Each structure stands twice: as C-alpha cells, then as structure tokens.
Amino acid sequence: MRSSLPFTPQKCFAAARDEAEIQSLLNNDVYKFLMLxxxxxxxxxxxxxxxxxxxxxxxxxxxxxxxxxxxxxEQLDAARGIPGVSPAEISYLRGMLTTSGRPIFREExxxxxxxxRLPDYRLENDGEGNxxxxxxxxWKTSMMWEILALKIVNTLYLYHYVKKAKLSAAEFNGxxxxxxxxxxxxxxxFREHPGLTFSEFGxxxxxSTDIHRMVLEILENELPGxxxxxxxxxxxxxFGSNNPRGTNAHExxxxxxxxxxxxxxxxxxxxxxxxxWMAHYPELAILLPDTFGTxxxxxxxxxxxxxxxxxxxxxxxxxxxxxxxxxxWLLENGEDPKAKVxxxxxxxxxxxxxDIAHRCSSKVGKLTFGIGTNLTNxxxxxxxxxxxxxxxxxxxxxxxxxxxxxxxxQARWVSTVKLSDNPSKAMxxxxxxxxxxxxx
Length: 440
Fold this sequence. Notes:
The chain has 440 residues and is an alpha/beta fold. The protein folds into two domains: 9-168 and 400-422, nicotinate phosphoribosyltransferase; 175-376, nicotinate phosphoribosyltransferase. It has helices at residues 9-12, 30-41, 43-46, 69-80, 87-94, 107-114, 139-142, 146-165, 169-191, 209-222, 233-238, 251-254, 263-280, 294-300, 303-308, 319-332, 350-360, 373-376, 430-439, and strands spanning 49-56, 121-125, 131-138, 198-200, 227-230, 286-287, 311-314, 341-344, 366-367, 369-371, 398-407, 412-415. Helix 4 runs antiparallel to helix 8 (146-165) and helix 5 (87-94) runs antiparallel to helix 6 (107-114). The chain starts with 8 loop residues before the first helix and ends with a helix.
C-alpha cells in the first residue's frame, strides 16, 4: 500500500527509487565552478596533478558497516556517466553576472564543462569498516569530485542506516518530522530578528538532494529577504535565482604551496594566489585567511590585499574572536571596517548566528552568515535510541580534501597541508605539517 505519510524513504532518497543521487553536474556548490574558471585561466595551475582523499572525522562512523560497497560504486559510476553540462545548463551559467554586470564564467570554461566528465575514482574497503576513497587527476578535473562525492556518501549513509535499522514507515516519518521541526525552530529564530541574513551552504553534507530541495523551499517561502540564496547551482536554477552564493575554498592555497619546500616561497605563494584571485574576481575578493592561520595571514598581508579585498569569511576560528581581530587589523592599517563584509560559516545554526550578530554586527559594514549542515542535515539524535545499532546516526563530519600534489620536476607526490585555526582540522603528512607550523 502506498504510504500517505509526509515522509517516506522513496520521497527522501534517490537510492530508494533506484535513481542516481547526482543527475546533473550543477548539483554542486558554485565555488567549485568559480575556482574551475580561475584554474583554467592560469596555465601554471590547470594541469597540476592532484590526489584527493576522503576523511571521516567523526569517531564511531564506519561507512563500510552501513553502506554496501556495490551501492556506493553504483552512485559514483552514475555520476561519472553524466555526459557533461547540458546546453540549457550552459545557458544558465552564461547568464550569471557579477555585481558589476560582467559574465562570471569565461567562454573557455563553459566549453570545458560542455563535454566534461568526472575522472575515475579509487575505492577500497580496509576491512575495518572504513572506505578509502580517492580521486587523482589534473586539478581542473579532479577538483569537481569533492562536493559530489560528499553528497553521495552522506545520503547513502542515512538511507542505508534506515534500511539496516528496519524502521517502520511511521518510525521513519518520526525521524524526518523531528528533523524538520528543528528547521522550523530556526526559521522562527530568524523571523524574530529580521535584520539577520544568511546563505544556505548545506550542499556537501545535505541529507539528500530531495531533502535539500524541501529545506530550500521552506527557507525561500518563510524567510524572504533573510535567506539570500543557496550555494547549490542546480537548486538556484530551479528556484529561479541567477545568483548562487559562494567564493573560494582552502584548496586554492593548499595545492600551490605543496609545490615548494622553501618557507619564504610558501608564504609568498599563499599571498600570490589570493592576489591572482582578486584580479580574476574583484567582486568576490573575500579573504579566507585560516588555511594556515588567520593571525599570521592578517599580520603579514601585503598592502594590495589589505586595500583590494571586499570582506572576509571566517571558517575555523570562533567569529566572536576572529571578527574583532579582523576589524583591529583594518583599523590599524587605515581601512574602514564599515566598508567590508564579514561571513562566518563554520558549524552555525540560527542561535549561534544570532549570538555572533549581537556581539559583532556593529563592527563591520555587513555581517551575514553561511549556514550548512544544521539546515540541510539536522538529523543527529532523531533515530529512536533502540534502533541506533550501527554507530552514530545523522550528520557527521566528513571531508574530501586535496591530499597531495605531484611535482613533475622531481617525479614525486608531496603532501598538501591545511593547518586552520582549529588544531583538530589540521591535515597533511607529519613532516609537512611540522614545516608549515614552523613557517606560520
């Protein structure tokens, strides 16, 4: 009998319908396309060989104990089978404009996407309940796997956990009802504070594309003017917006700095690529200074970066500390904080955003937020306790990051590094991490 309940696995998960989770390459964060455009425009970057690896950060999550390997391969293969970006999707990308009215994407990038196919992947089961998933290829192609792979892994984990727990239709409906009740609580918090604005950044860890779409529809209808949009290009197109939200990510600094061992050159490379980004996208000159530590970045930033940037995204340092530090740096160097935008974006929900706004909104010209997992996959603790038999249920911390870059002249792979302002997020081979700690 067809269920009349609002939430069923078939309504929430593509895999429950024997469908592919990724059916369009635009089901991705816009910043991947922005960075692709940048990488393709710089010959020294586009063909650097990069190896990406998945890392599960949450203790107790054993993906291979929940997701059948065949199911994961089927979804990855389906994504690889997508024959490029369709003409209609290309037209949409071509119509995206910067705030100054120029096209965001160059025609070379659109031509590249038209025939683009994802490169191969490597998947192994380590026999201890973990999958080792990696992607290797030129930066211009391998970079496009990150968000798509994360979407696949996250939705399969939830769907197959529900299957293994043998939830009844009513129990599953209860899980999703509790999840959406949390969303409406956040909506109410935002509605009570109409000056609070945010963008939905939840693509990478969304519970599924179907659930993501439901969440965005609620946000668009309940919080017009406060929800500024989504980072997801496909959903932005579906909802009639030509302005998906995003700038760049840590990979821009992690990959080029892996190509040198000299500390001074590492520092110069970090600032050089930010300078190149600002020249390529002056309207999107948003600093992301925490790749190797915010304090070092600000203290040593060249004058052209100080004067040319339009704002700052705060990703791994408590914004209640980072924003005053950023504002102090601006004031010490004769820049007006009221002319800048500040974008906290790490692990936020409505209440934490409100607290940050109360403390920091008067310090900068515009304070707005990027909120992700707590909107699109707020599922922790929603599984009936007696059914939680396979490790933690719900959203978990998982990333796909550049793991190594290939030095052609030396014919060897070298580990990339991300220190961040949160030591638990540091990534890289121990010797390279030590070098970067001494450098920064």
